[in-house]
């Protein structure tokens, strides 16, 4: 059993900053035919990386504060009500009339794998450096900060500066291949990063695909060499690899029919964070994260509403 790289000793809620919106996922019943309608199932739920992580943490019993931007519309009203009902502190959420609440539109193939996706997260651009600086008390109260890469560059710089001043551990999700580059200047300040294989390649060799266990392990070690304390690289159906300065490892995925891949990575991130805050050794924390991803893949939506530590241990990889 391997101890955590640096114990998380601060007491307080987790501060989560990033995107929130509505997920619309179309699951194909047949092969996608360009230029034509394809039979399938369409469903919607609330999503956004930051929102998903915040709700998962709340379900696990972790106090959490969410900072995001949503529209002054019905979708925003319902999103706020849902997050608040789950136990998330939404008092610092920004409402704006400039843009509608964000939307993520995804097409999932018959194997449950993401084929195409479009996101409209313009609302997140309303999170200005000034808005964040006015809420510096949230950084002082928090035990840990989680961010996603939807945050505008200038605002991200302010967030990282405040976190550094308050000695606040930072965990991050690159969110997408296009957004991953925003985190590169801050790798040396990250306690935890959780990219998928395509996102991880951005920090290693963008021309080289990470397609298997050996390459993912090397990529995780490379991120650690750049200053990240814990790097976890997900490989979809193949599982994940992780590394610290002292250890590295591989955990296979739990085999299951994939109902909806949306939110599985967010569930993993939230669970690992929760476990580390509660002094669970890293090996077990990552295994619990795999359990959370497994449960989320089997649920039609971005967050399993009855997620619990008991459920995670029931599915845990030994």
Radius of gyration over all CA atoms, rounded? 18 Å
Q: What's the overall average pLDDT, rounded?
A: 93
Q: What gross morphology would you assign?
A: globular
The number of helices is: 10
Helix coverage percent: 25-40%
Order of helices and strands: EEEHEEHEEEHHEHEEHHEEEHHH
Largest sheet: spatial strand order: 4-1-9-10-11-12-13-14
Terminal CA distance reads 12 Å
Largest β-sheet summary? 8 strands, mixed
Q: Got a strand count?
A: 14
Q: What structural class do you assign from the helix and strand content?
A: alpha/beta
How big a fraction of the residues is strand?
Answer: 15-25%
Describe the model.
The protein is α/β, with parallel strands linked by helices and 318 residues long. It contains ten helices and 14 strands. The protein has helices spanning 49-59, 74-86, 129-133, 136-141, 153-165, 197-203, 213-225, 264-277, 282-297, 309-315; strands spanning 14-17, 21-28, 40-47, 64-67, 69-71, 94-96, 102-108, 114-120, 144-148, 170-173, 190-193, 230-234, 240-243, 248-251. An eight-stranded mixed sheet has the order 4-1-9-10-11-12-13-14, with helices on both faces. It has a four-stranded mixed sheet with strand order 3-2-7-8. Helix 1 packs across helix 8, helix 8 (264-277) packs antiparallel against helix 9 (282-297) and helix 9 (282-297) packs across helix 10. It is globular, with a radius of gyration of 18 Å. The two termini are 12 Å apart.
SSE layout and pairing:
Layout: E1 14-17, E2 21-28, E3 40-47, H1 49-59, E4 64-67, E5 69-71, H2 74-86, E6 94-96, E7 102-108, E8 114-120, H3 129-133, H4 136-141, E9 144-148, H5 153-165, E10 170-173, E11 190-193, H6 197-203, H7 213-225, E12 230-234, E13 240-243, E14 248-251, H8 264-277, H9 282-297, H10 309-315
Parallel strand pairs: 1-4, 1-9, 2-7, 5-6, 9-10, 10-11, 11-12
Antiparallel strand pairs: 2-3, 7-8, 12-13, 13-14
């Amino acid at each position: 059993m391997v101890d955590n790289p640096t114990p998380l000793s601060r007491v307080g809620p987790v501060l989560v900053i990033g995107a929130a919106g509505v997920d619309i996922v179309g699951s194909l019943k047949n092969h996608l035919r360009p230029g034509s309608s394809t039979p399938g199932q369409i469903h919607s739920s609330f999503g956004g990386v930051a929102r998903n992580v915040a709700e998962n943490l709340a379900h696990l019993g972790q106090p959490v504060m969410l900072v995001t931007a949503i529209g002054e519309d019905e979708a925003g009203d319902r999103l706020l009500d849902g997050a608040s009902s789950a136990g998330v502190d939404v008092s610092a959420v920004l409402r704006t009339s400039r843009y509608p609440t964000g939307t993520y539109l995804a097409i999932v193939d018959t194997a449950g794998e993401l084929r195409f996706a479009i996101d409209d997260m313009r609302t997140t651009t309303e999170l200005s450096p000034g808005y964040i600086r006015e809420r510096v008390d949230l950084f002082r109260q928090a035990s840990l900060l989680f961010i996603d890469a939807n945050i505008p560059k200038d605002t991200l710089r302010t967030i990282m500066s405040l976190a550094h001043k308050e000695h606040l551990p930072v965990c991050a999700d690159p969110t997408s291949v296009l957004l991953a580059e925003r985190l590169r200047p801050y790798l040396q300040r990250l306690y935890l990063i959780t990219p998928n294989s395509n996102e991880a390649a951005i920090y290693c060799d963008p021309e080289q695909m990470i397609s298997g266990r050996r390459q993912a392990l090397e990529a995780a070690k490379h991120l650690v060499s750049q200053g990240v304390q814990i790097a976890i690289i997900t490989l979809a159906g193949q599982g994940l690899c992780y590394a610290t300065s002292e250890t590295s490892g591989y955990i296979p995925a739990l085999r299951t029919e994939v109902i909806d891949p949306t939110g599985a990575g967010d569930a993993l991130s939230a669970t690992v964070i929760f476990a580390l805050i509660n002094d669970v050794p890293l090996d077990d924390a990552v295994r619990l994260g795999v359990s959370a991803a497994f449960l989320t893949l089997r649920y039609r939506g971005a967050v399993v509403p009855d997620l619990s530590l008991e459920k995670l241990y029931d599915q845990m990889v030994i």
